[in-house]
Design goal:
- The longest helix is centred in the middle third of the chain and has 23 residues, at 155-177.
- By secondary structure, this protein is an alpha+beta fold.
- The chain is built from nine helices and ten strands.
- It folds into three domains: 3-75, 2-Layer Sandwich (Phosphorylase Kinase, domain 1); 80-126 and 178-251, Transferase(Phosphotransferase), domain 1 (Orthogonal Bundle), CATH 1.10.510; 129-176.
- The strands form three sheets. It has a five-stranded antiparallel beta sheet, with helices on one face.
- The protein binds adenosine-5'-diphosphate and magnesium ion.
- Magnesium ion (MG) binds next to loops.
Length: 253
């Protein structure tokens, strides 16, 4: 079988096997063996469970199988890792708004990702949307338009107009939603109804943006909040302020 290592994360080796990705949480020599096994098992099980749960809510790789110990085989997502790309993409604010929407959907389902950074997000350009656009009216309809008493245009002109309107619709559709953002790496995730946990999830995302995308971080985070219309948005944002002031206090500001 054709397989290659595509990355070594903080705790796992990522192996690409044809259209799949195997995430293998390898042994860590610096941990006590029994603790190491426990942690790897716990995170693997949790990640597979949360990926499955999230798959009906947002875009995540589909889980193919898991040994419930250290390996998860999942769909390989062909795309751009946002930590490398977000600053460069012209629709970055639109992407951030989409990220906010996805986080809100997770939070509405009481799923806390636990590691919301742009290296855990894959941007996929999706041209399939084209297929969702209504087909052209058939020739008969075009002729009807041309023949209708109100218009005195020829069939050719009617056809052109209809093509034009479809193209402008395509462009609008293209600009609006020709991409998707996949969330990955749920190993630190958990389920919780607590406002505090949701606020901390956002706080970590904000900190990750500030560290990785410092030039645009304000703009990006406000786009994320624009999309973040979770059901407890007001309470969660109030709590976020408290979490932040605690952080500042700890840092000694
Ligand atoms: N399903 C996937 N499809 C494509 N690439 C992936 C997939 N899962 C992980 N990756 C790549 O591997 C990297 C590390 O994976 P991740 O699950 O984040 O592991 P870690 O826990 O070590 O951070 C990701 O940043 C991404 O580039
Ligand atoms: Mg990761």
């Amino acid at each position: 079988m054709n397989s290659k290592i595509i990355g070594r994360g903080a705790e796992a080796v990522l192996i690409q096997e044809e259209g799949f990705l195997v995430k293998d949480r390898i042994k860590k020599g610096y941990r006590l063996p029994y603790l190491d096994e426990k942690l790897r098992k716990q995170r693997t099980k949790k990640e597979a469970k949360l990926l499955k749960k999230s798959s009906s809510i947002i875009k995540v790789p589909e889980v193919i199988s898991s040994d419930e110990k250290e390996k998860i085989k999942m769909q390989f997502i062909e795309g751009k890792k946002l930590s490398d790309w977000l600053d460069k993409l012209s629709n970055s604010e639109q992407i951030c708004e989409e990220i906010g929407k996805q986080v809100a959907l997770l939070h509405n389902a009481d799923i806390i990702h636990g590691d919301l950074t742009t290296s855990n997000m894959i941007y996929v350009e999706d041209f399939n949307n084209y297929e969702d656009i209504k087909p052209l009216p058939d020739n008969k309809k075009i002729l009807n338009i041309a023949n209708s008493s109100k218009s005195n245009i020829t069939a050719e002109q009617a056809s052109k107009r209809s093509l034009c309107s479809r193209d402008s619709k395509r462009t609008a559709e293209y600009n609006k939603s020709n991409f998707q953002v996949y969330f990955i790496d749920f190993g630190l995730g958990f389920t919780s109804k607590r406002i505090e946990d949701k606020a901390v999830d956002l706080h970590l995302l904000k900190q990750a943006l500030e560290a990785k995308h410092f030039l645009y971080f304000q703009k990006f985070f406000s786009s994320i909040l624009k999309g973040y219309n979770s059901k407890d948005k007001t309470k969660i944002l109030e709590q976020l302020k408290k979490v932040e002031s605690r952080g500042r206090y700890k840092k000694g500001f």
